[in-house]
Amino acid sequence: MEKVELLSPAGDLERLKIACIYGADAVYIGGQDYSLRANANNFSISDIKEGCKFAHNLGKRVYLALNIVFHNEDIMGVYNYIKGVVDSGIDAFIVSDLFLVRYIKSNFKVEVHLSTQASVTNYLSVNFLKEEKVDRVVLAREVDRDGIKEIIEKTGMDIEVFIHGAMCTFVSGRCVLSNYFTNRDSNRGGCAQVCRFCFDIDSEDERFSMAVKDLNMASYLKDMIELGIKSFKIEGRMRSPFYLAVVLSSYRRLIDAIYEDNLTDSLLEKELKILSRVSNRENSTHFYFKEANLEDQYYTGRQEISNQDYLGIILEKNDNIYTIRQRNYFKVGDKVEFITPNMDIISLEVTNLYNEKNEPIEVANQADAIIKMKLDIDLPNYSMLRKAYLT
Amino acid sequence: MLLINVNKKELDEYLEFTNSFIIGLENYSINYYEVSIKEIEEILNKYKNIDLFISINKNIFNKDIKDLETKLISLSKLKIKGILFYDLSILEIVKRLNLNIDLVIHQTHLITNYNICNYYQDKGCKYAYLSTEITKDEIEEIEAKTNIKLMVYFLGHPIISHSKRKLVSNYYLYNEKEDTRDIHIIKEHGKDDKKYYLKETNKGTNILTYDILNGTKAFIELKNKIEYAILDNNLIDDKLFLEILELYKLNLDNKLCDKDLINKMNNLIGTNDGFFYLKTTYKVK
């Protein structure tokens, strides 16, 4: 049985590498133009080349989002750009404008995936796209379980669905709130998340929110695998390396356990705790089992909770001295956990800290500062340090 | 030619200005006045010489398909002018059943360039209903580079977002309050500049502009390059709308000069010209 793909976002080259080594089977990235996250760092052509080489060496795939809704002025440059990206080794393009499907399939031997921005919701539309030689469809988030099942049964198309992360309040492609509120083009990567703003309704005294909770399908992966879904997509090209590492390794452990037939309640409970901790919003299954209802929405403005668990990432090791790029405050004496690309979680107490000049320090309190730790354990690069909460 | 998005079945008062109308199909339209197939038949029987477009612009789900096929077959037997569609399934049904229906690609915010217009023309569409978020210059370039017939929305309260969620009733349920209004007005908290309409229907929640879009200047510059100029009656007072129609008709009949039409319209409904002369940005770095 072919294993479902775990598909991760990657906002830059470092995140791509982290996604690949923390359990993603494939990553989706944006170039410096034409993707719906115009304000992520995004990838230059040379980054794409390096990212593809890194991923392919690990047997992973890389997809490039070319999913803006094109205006005339965007068209001329895109053809050369596509060629450059294909030459860099990309495995698939994610597009929403259908003229690009025809162009790419006529000129290159590369997959084309249709973006959720096209809001595909039924099997006839999928059949239409199949005839257009689309290789995979990312379904609209509004399609429920039975809808997904029927689409797969009636089309045989490779289907990708979101399993985790932020949700749009409005139907993708049917929202231009940003255009009107901020003059930023929602469908060309400028989404300002206006749906998460706080509003007054009808009078000054009434607050209104249309923000929705995040998606978390961790408890239902087995059911989703049995439907025949080809790819599980994690949302969030703007998310931090730590978030990616934690979320991907949780889903990796759950998916592997399902295929190895050893998923237990205690494993699921532990992973749900990890996923809940790293998220900054409450979560729900939204449209999967039912019409989204009042439980899926927020009513009192923005609800994000700041998370300061992420303490740093290991950049290199010399003998038993680890160089770490620090993120949040911690100090000697704190209990911490290392999570590793091997899926290990190692707990320990911080007994020493040094600054970049190898001088002893008591506290690490500067975001992005380079610090060092002497440890008698073997940890691979890109291992992450976080506050202890599992032990 | 003027194409009126109507909010009722009685069209008599509009007939002196145009004979082209859009109306929604019951259960299948978002932000259109909806009528049944039977009512469409009645309208066509009552008004023999009108061109009636039917908007089927909701997202279609598997459970809708069987009924939708039946509806499309019925519509193909009526003398409608065409169907405005959003969902690709409609293109697929019309092709598979070989239905004799003229199609208008109407993907609200997504028809923004000449290549996509050409694509849908190749797929058999006769008309493209352009996005309200592109500029007049972009429309001119589309016209120059495609042969598909163009529809452009110049006046009304354009829809700016649609959710399948019942955002308003959820809000009232959560707050244990009774919702006593058909339509609400929202604005960003702490900012007084812009208001928007918020309306929930049985298909979800829509947000519309509060200020009327007045694309009259763009209409003047584009009227000879497009097939239909859409004027939307939705949420506009009937008397005011008739006044607007009269001014546009006078201009088309060369009885009111362009400058006077613009001035009179600005006085009547304000100067919100949307994105006709305003380019959006999308990189903020």
Give short descriptive properties of this protein:
heterodimer; A: 391 residues; alpha/beta; TIM Barrel; Elongation Factor Tu (Ef-tu), domain 3; eight-stranded parallel β-barrel; six-stranded antiparallel sheet; 10 helices; 20 strands; B: 285 residues; 2 domains; four-stranded antiparallel sheet; 14 strands; 23% strand
Describe this structure in words.
The complex is a heterodimer of chains A (391) and B (285). Chain A is of the alpha/beta class. Chain A has two domains: 5-296, Aldolase class I (TIM Barrel, Alpha-Beta Barrel), CATH 3.20.20.70; 310-387, Translation factors (Elongation Factor Tu (Ef-tu), domain 3, Beta Barrel), CATH 2.40.30. Chain A has helices at 13-21, 45-57, 72-87, 98-107, 123-131, 145-155, 177-182, 221-227, 241-259, 265-278; strands at 5-9, 26-30, 61-66, 92-95, 111-114, 136-138, 158-165, 199-201, 207-208, 214-216, 231-234, 283-284, 310-318, 321-326, 330-331, 335-339, 345-349, 363-364, 370-374, 384-387. Chain A has an eight-stranded parallel barrel, surrounded by five helices. A six-stranded antiparallel β-sheet of chain A has the order 17-16-20-13-14-19, covered by helices on one side. In chain A, helix 1 runs parallel beside helix 2, helix 1 (13-21) runs parallel beside helix 9 (241-259) and helix 9 runs antiparallel to helix 10. The longest helix of chain A is centred in the middle third of the chain and has 19 residues, at 241-259. The model of chain A has no long low-confidence stretch (mean pLDDT 93). Chain B has 285 residues and is an alpha/beta fold. Chain B folds into two domains: 2-157 and 212-269, Aldolase class I (TIM Barrel); 159-211, no CATH class. Helix content of chain B is 32%, strand content 23%. Chain B is built from nine helices and 14 strands. Chain B has helices at residues 37-46, 65-76, 88-96, 114-122, 136-145, 167-174, 216-222, 238-252, 258-269; strands spanning 2-5, 20-25, 34-35, 51-56, 82-85, 103-105, 127-129, 149-156, 159-163, 184-188, 195-201, 204-209, 213-214, 228-232. An eight-stranded parallel β-barrel of chain B has the order 1-2-4-5-6-7-8-14, surrounded by five helices. A four-stranded antiparallel β-sheet of chain B has the order 9-12-11-10. In chain B, strand 5 (82-85), helix 3 and strand 6 form a beta-alpha-beta unit. In chain B, helix 2 packs across helix 3 and helix 8 (238-252) runs antiparallel to helix 9 (258-269). The N and C termini of chain B lie far apart (43 Å). Chains A and B meet through helix 3, helix 4, helix 5, helix 6 and helix 7 of A and helix 3, helix 4, helix 5, strand 9 and helix 6 of B.
